[in-house]
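User: Second chain of the day. Same drill as before.
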Amino acid sequence: VDPGDVVWLNRIGLWYEIAASDLRKVRRFDPRLPKEFAWYAVIDRRPVSQVSYLRYPVRTTEGTETVGVPAAVCTLPEAAGRGYARALMEHVHERLRAEGARFSARSPGP
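Assistant: Same format as last time:
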């Protein structure tokens, strides 16, 4: 996926702009992020929807658990309502379960 297209998707879908250089830093230094950073629905070689997630260690009565938090969920307006974000969220939850996470939490959006 072209980094410029990801910047555009985030600007339109999340009202948030992140420079490609900042994105590289976040990917390198934030251990909560998966190595892939995010997953995309792509149409005509352009991302139209994305989902990422963060992993947080949380203490429970049974010990420390990893809680997965989907993040940066957005879809371009022209691609909305077609199930792209839903399919990506299902994929992210499958990944979290495969990593051993038993819990998922929702973070409030903007």
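The beta strands are 38-43, 46-60, 63-75, 103-104.

User: Great, on to the next one.
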